[in-house]
Design goal:
With 432 residues, the protein is mainly β. It is built from three helices and 32 strands. A hairpin with a 3-residue loop joins strand 19 and strand 20. The protein is globular and about 55 Å long.
Length: 432
């Protein structure tokens, strides 16, 4: 009788272990991928706050500066050619936006001009001194009250616009005149990339869509895993060797053939549980160096993927939803807690960690959060949620200067044409 009883218990445990989501019988939705076996995990994953590492280590950095690299189809912005005087030279006024604290919108920079929008969805073109050259609005009365948020991309003399109200349209950059206007099934939720008379964008249903720039007709679309909630994070995409590579709000990375829209490879990076938690899931932009893809998220995961097949080169524990910046063989990023990371690009080893708030008073540190960063020459410019801009020497990690921009939250700093731009609600401020 005892043997029979033990046999029943053993069978019960065996069945439960086989069906448990933590067992070795994985499916594609419940685990990140079979490629996860090949991950080179550099640090054991922990939920605690990181500590400084080699904080006094001085880096020998290459003097590679990029000019006007803000349009890069691979999001590989690199180190910009900005000297860092931080003298305010002009400002660009617009009516204040509702939901500005989400900070998920970007100006469009032209050679000497700038494109942005106001709370009613008016597209505004400014000259270099902040004077309005033209202002156009293509929304009806109801739409103007729905807080339209616009995304821009330039193609020749035309401006492509998509929004969170499902509209997409094309404007003449010189005059602001409307060329065509279309409506999508769902609101858009990504940056825009263009190539060979086509543009690509992802909507809130995690559908990648390819449109013809000439008339706005849809070339093809690709549906990916949908979620039950709406994310605060914008999806990112890159164009590389006629591949369209994008992430969606449930953490899938998908590579698609540019011409046909057929999947080349796909890598789920999160378990199926994320489908119910996407409102809190945030990720960085995808960045490519031509061979590999780099990105991170607020789940303590920083990935390096092989561009050709989506296999994982390495994964490290960095909590960040900011766009990583490649500097030679290094990756620079800042965590959500305010730690500046220097990472070896090839192997994923963390070389140095500096806490950017260590010069602030202990009582105020827990309230401080970075909102974005850029790199100009040897300086890292970090926007803080208290309205200040930190200037940090990259080679040493030392805090050089703190500048008051606003009493409220500010956007990430944008560097273009040897100038630095920061957005506070109602104004884009330009520094030389």
């Amino acid at each position: 009788m005892i043997k029979v009883f033990l046999l029943i218990i053993f069978s019960f445990l065996l069945v439960n272990c086989s069906l448990n989501e933590n067992s070795k019988i994985w499916n594609n939705k419940n685990k990140k991928s079979d490629e996860i076996k090949n991950i080179k995990l550099i640090l054991e994953k922990k939920n605690g706050v990181p500590k400084e590492l080699n904080s006094n280590l001085k880096l020998n950095l290459p003097k590679i500066y990029s000019d006007n690299n803000i349009f890069h189809n691979q999001n590989n912005f690199g180190v910009q050619n900005y000297s860092g005087k931080l003298n305010k030279v002009s400002s660009y006024k617009f009516s204040k936006l509702n939901g500005f604290e989400q900070l998920n919108f970007y100006p469009l920079f032209l050679d000497n001009d700038l494109i942005f929008f106001d709370k009613k969805g008016s597209v505004i073109k400014y000259d270099k001194d902040g004077k309005i050259l033209w202002k156009r609005n293509y929304y009806d009365k109801f739409e103007k009250k729905s807080d339209p948020k616009l995304s821009f991309s330039k193609e020749g003399n035309n401006l492509i616009v998509t929004d969170n109200l499902s509209k997409l349209y094309l404007i003449n950059l010189n005059t602001g005149d409307l060329i065509w206007s279309k409506r999508n099934d769902y609101p858009f939720n990504s940056e825009i990339k263009t190539l060979k008379n086509k543009f690509f964008v992802v909507d809130l249903k995690n559908i990648l869509r390819c449109f013809n720039i000439k008339d706005g007709s849809e070339c093809w679309n690709l549906k990916t895993e949908n979620s039950l909630t709406v994310s605060n994070s914008k999806n990112s995409l890159i164009l590389d060797d006629e591949l369209v590579i994008f992430n969606n709000i449930v953490g899938d990375i998908t590579a698609v053939d540019f011409n046909t829209g057929l999947i080349v490879w796909q890598l789920p990076t999160q378990s199926s549980e994320i489908i119910n938690e996407t409102y809190n899931f945030k990720h960085s932009r995808l960045v490519s160096d031509g061979k590999n893809i780099f990105f991170s998220n607020n789940k303590n995961e920083f990935f390096s993927l092989n561009k050709k097949n989506g296999s994982i080169n390495w994964m490290n524990t960095v909590k960040s939803n900011f766009t990583p910046i490649l500097v030679g063989d290094l990756i620079i990023t800042i965590s959500d807690e305010g730690y500046l990371y220097v990472i070896d690009k090839d192997k994923g080893n963390i070389i140095r960690i500096n806490y950017i708030f260590k010069d602030n008073r202990v009582k105020e540190r827990r309230f401080l959060k970075p909102t974005g960063f850029s790199i100009g020459q040897n300086m890292v410019y970090v926007s803080i949620n208290n309205g200040k801009l930190k200037k940090i020497e990259l080679s040493t990690g030392k805090d050089i200067q703190n500048i008051n921009i606003s009493r409220e939250i500010i956007s990430m700093p944008f560097i273009f044409n040897k100038n630095l731009f920061v957005i506070k609600n109602g104004t884009v401020i330009k520094y030389e």
